[in-house]
Amino acid sequence: MKFAVIVFPGSNCDEDMYHAVSEVLQEEAEMVWFEEADLDKYDGVLLPGGFSYGDYLRSGAVASVSKVIAQVREFIAAGKPVLGVCNGFQVLLEMGELPGAMLKNRDLKFICREESLTVEQTDTMFTSRYEEGETISLPVAHGEGNYYCDEAVLEKLRENRQIAFTYKNNPNGSTGNIAGITNEAGNVLGMMPHPERAVEELLGNDDGLRIFESILTHWRDVHVVNN
Ligand SMILES: NC(=O)CC[C@H](N)C(=O)O
């Protein structure tokens, strides 16, 4: 499986994402500068964390109208997997590919620590390797991680089983304790916690690795023909 890690001016978790996929998952990955992307040759797109365009206007707002975005939309429309982490999640929200918006953290402070999460949904191409209801621990690092949506959207997210992860101890004020959601079609996951920072014991925790393994498992199920 071949992944593109999209790099924007101000991305700072791109190397971690690349490491997670190429060194730990041991699949192909390339760093792709947002102006030079040709996403046709990739099977998965990873939108990494960071401060794209210095979080100018709102986090992810400028990146969401940058050059690569038309191709990301085509990639999503083709049903291929797109994972947005932290700033990547913010970009997907600003694109309108995921419902809701991101506000500043409830306490107006940048939060950088491990958080316990509940895996709410395992029937997705991103979470199939977890147990439903399982508690995992992942690092968070954000200033604008307070996920907001109105009651009607929250209801729809619940009904469609689009809530993938919730916080056990809501650190930022997110509606419904939401830490990560998928799109309706199920091929886009946006999440604030950083799975790429928790993929091996050397990093203190490997709870994030199963997200990448789930994507790979799904891709193999669809593409690898057993003779
Ligand atoms: N780690 C990150 O991706 C930071 C996200 C974002 N720019 C924020 O602080 O909210």
Describe this protein's structure.
The protein is α/β, with parallel strands linked by helices. The chain has a single domain, classed as Class I glutamine amidotransferase (GATase) domain (Rossmann fold, 3-Layer(aba) Sandwich). It is 24% helix and 25% strand. The protein is built from 5 helices and 11 strands. The chain has helices at residues 14-25, 69-77, 87-95, 151-159, 209-223; strands at 2-7, 28-33, 44-47, 82-85, 101-103, 111-119, 135-142, 146-148, 163-167, 178-182, 188-191. Bound molecules: glutamine. Pathway: Purine metabolism; IMP biosynthesis via de novo pathway; 5-amino-1-(5-phospho-D-ribosyl)imidazole from N(2)-formyl-N(1)-(5-phospho-D-ribosyl)glycinamide: step 1/2. Keywords: ATP-binding, Cytoplasm, Glutamine amidotransferase, Hydrolase, Ligase, Nucleotide-binding, Purine biosynthesis.
Percent of residues in helical segments?
10-25%
The CATH topology comes to Rossmann fold
Heterogens: glutamine
**What order do the SSEs take from the amino end to the carboxyl end, as H and E?**
EHEEHEHEEEEHEEEH
* Order of strands across the main sheet: 2-1-3-4-11-10-9-6-7
The share of residues in extended strands comes to 25-35%
Kindly report the average pLDDT value: 97
Name of the CATH first level: Alpha Beta
Largest sheet: 9 strands, mixed
CATH architecture assignment: 3-Layer(aba) Sandwich
Give the CATH H-level superfamily. Answer: Class I glutamine amidotransferase (GATase) domain
